[in-house]
Design goal:
The complex is a heterodimer of chains A (306) and B (244). By secondary structure, chain A is an alpha/beta fold. Chain A has 11 helices and 13 strands. Chain A folds into 2 domains: 213 residues, P-loop containing nucleotide triphosphate hydrolases (Rossmann fold, 3-Layer(aba) Sandwich); 59 residues. Chain A has a 6-stranded mixed β-sheet, with helices on both faces. The two termini of chain A are 44 Å apart. In chain B, helix 4 packs antiparallel against helix 8. The chains are: A alpha/beta (306), B mainly alpha (244). The interface between A and B is medium-sized, with 34 and 27 residues.
């Protein structure tokens, strides 16, 4: 079941949080949702699941509006805010409350408690949970109905390294089963490990909707380290070749294939200590795409600009 | 997801936070125990309380019940559970009805059982209850309806206001302060409005002697229930249009 955004627009007073947003999220893979703070990611996700009413346009799941689904939780599992359980209510009771709305069995409640690793704290009040445990409880709620679509806002927020790995494997597994996994994250390095496709928005508008491989594709870039750096750079200089020196002995060279560097260096008797192709990271691609659209930028100390 | 199941979930919400049943228990005790104390106090003066006096606790219980009902509604937003609740029930109205039923039913029980307890205490203390059996029945059921109507109205107000403190203040202000405030305003025509406000109207149900009023006790009950229904309709409209 795909998620379709059709010209989704949402206005608060005079400000457009989201403007004419259209894209589609496909099943069978993990799709990342990226954007600077305030870009409209939360608004978009809330509009998909009927928590926010769009000003115009619509968001559909498998062609239907969320509110018209007969058993919403059995089709879409959502985690938007980790702290959505009442402080004084036990975790297992919180799950029971949700399960009761859909006639989901007590057995399934125990199952998701196991899936989320909450066995030892299930009888504890939710107010006593750490952020990571609250996050796991939120995932448990999302998985309760065994849904074919998952919508997650910062699911690894607050998880310890073991939890992050667990989440990564869980999401990959769910995608392989053919489910639709749509998640937003600011942890780009982590996201790049699990997502295949990303949607990037900024200031409420679509910036990119492409596979990660496409966004990180670039001209060949090679990192070299050698004691004879100046000599090597002179050797390789030419049209379309640029280099950035990192320090006295290492540099990144663009526009020359790895093999050429190795051969020319060997022919000139230059000893290479390090020679490796460099892939553009998702973070770099993202920064480039959204540099104009950042709403909340921290003040920078110009003297220490990198 | 069915409205029936959503309602059952509201019962689970009620039962899994011990403060909820506990507060309803206190409301019941307010009525029953106050009557016991009154009977004992009067017996020291060799007097017997009237049936209306026996139910003095009802006006305190209504405040407690109103606040609990407003909190039961507002807590969805103050604790953040509104997200989970309306993800499970995106059509939204079943949640409102579920909360109204849970609060209404428990308040009715607290009121009716409290009144029954109060009148039994009175009978034990010498009040001639048997001679006025129809009155007794009306007082027992009437106290139940009174508390239930107030509770349902408070749920509606809570859903509209959402903010916890504002919800409590609005409920107390509307149900308790407003009638008092109006009687202080020296404008004759406005005084005719007071008997038709929710608390005074419902209060006719728990008064044994009928004060000078155009409304019969059950008429007063009907007015209160009309207020409760209006509150729910307003809450449903607001809930439908707004973001969660």
């Amino acid at each position: 079941m795909s998620i379709q955004m059709r010209s989704l627009s949402k206005r608060y007073g005079k400000n457009w949080a989201v403007r004419d947003l259209s894209f589609e999220v496909q099943p069978g893979r993990v799709t990342g949702f990226l954007g600077p703070n305030g870009a409209g990611k939360s608004t978009t996700m809330r509009s998909i699941v009927g928590l926010d009413r769009p000003t115009s346009g619509e968001a559909l799941i498998g062609g239907q509006r969320y509110a018209s689904l007969r058993a919403p939780l059995r089709e879409v599992g959502t985690l938007l805010d980790a702290r959505s359980a009442h402080r004084s209510r036990r975790a297992v009771d919180h799950l029971r409350t949700v399960a009761t709305t859909h006639g989901i069995s007590r057995r399934r409640v125990d199952e998701v408690i196991g899936l989320a690793g909450l066995e030892s704290v299930a009888k504890r009040k939710a107010g006593k949970f750490s952020l990571g445990m609250s996050q796991r409880l939120g995932i448990a709620v999302a998985l309760l109905g065994d849904p074919h679509t998952l919508i997650l806002d910062e699911p690894v927020n607050g998880l310890d390294p073991e939890g992050v790995t667990w989440m990564r494997n869980l999401l990959a597994h769910l995608a392989v089963e053919g489910r639709t996994v749509f998640l937003s994250s600011h942890l780009l390095s982590e996201l790049a490990l699990v997502a295949e496709h990303v949607v990037v928005i900024g200031r409420g508008e679509l910036i990119a909707d492409a596979p990660i491989s496409e966004l990180t594709a670039q001209e060949e870039r090679v990192r070299v380290r050698t004691a004879q750096l100046d000599e090597l750079l002179r050797l390789l200089a030419g049209p379309g070749v640029t280099s950035t020196s990192r320090d006295a002995t290492s540099a990144e060279i663009t526009g020359v294939p790895v093999e050429t560097i190795a051969q020319r260096a060997a022919a000139a008797g230059i000893v290479l200590l390090e020679l490796a192709p460099v892939q553009r990271t998702l973070e770099e691609a993202y920064t480039e795409l959204t540099s104009d659209a950042v709403e909340y930028r921290a003040g920078s100390d110009r003297r220490s600009a990198s | 997801m069915t409205p029936g199941r959503v309602m059952r979930a509201e019962w689970v919400k009620f039962g899994t936070l011990i403060s909820n049943p506990l507060t309803m228990l206190v409301a019941f005790l307010l009525i029953a125990v106050l009557a016991v104390v009154l009977v004992w106090a009067r017996s020291t003066e060799s007097a017997v309380p009237t049936m209306t006096e026996l139910l003095t606790g009802a006006s305190w219980a209504q405040m407690l019940v109103a606040v609990l009902a407003a909190v039961f509604a507002c807590t969805e937003w103050s604790s953040g559970t509104s997200q989970v609740t309306f993800l499970a029930a995106p059509t939204r109205w079943p949640v409102l009805i579920g909360k109204a039923v849970v609060m209404g039913a428990t308040a009715f029980l607290a009121g009716a059982l409290g009144a029954a307890g109060a009148l039994i205490a009175g009978a034990a203390g010498g009040v001639d209850v048997e001679a006025h059996l129809s009155l007794t029945t009306r007082l027992v059921f009437g106290t139940g309806v009174y508390l239930a109507g107030i509770a349902i109205l408070a749920v509606g107000i809570g859903v509209i206001v959402r903010n916890l403190i504002a919800g409590i203040v609005t409920v107390i202000g509307f149900i308790w302060v407003l009638p008092l405030a109006i009687t202080l305003i020296p404008w004759e025509p406005l005084q005719h409005v007071v008997p038709y406000l929710p608390s005074p109207a419902g209060g006719l149900l728990v008064a044994a002697e009928n004060p000078a009023s155009n409304l019969t006790p059950w008429g007063g009950g009907a007015v209160l229930l009309a207020w409760a229904a209006a509150g729910l309709i307003a809450a449903a409209l607001v809930l439908r249009r707004r973001d969660v």
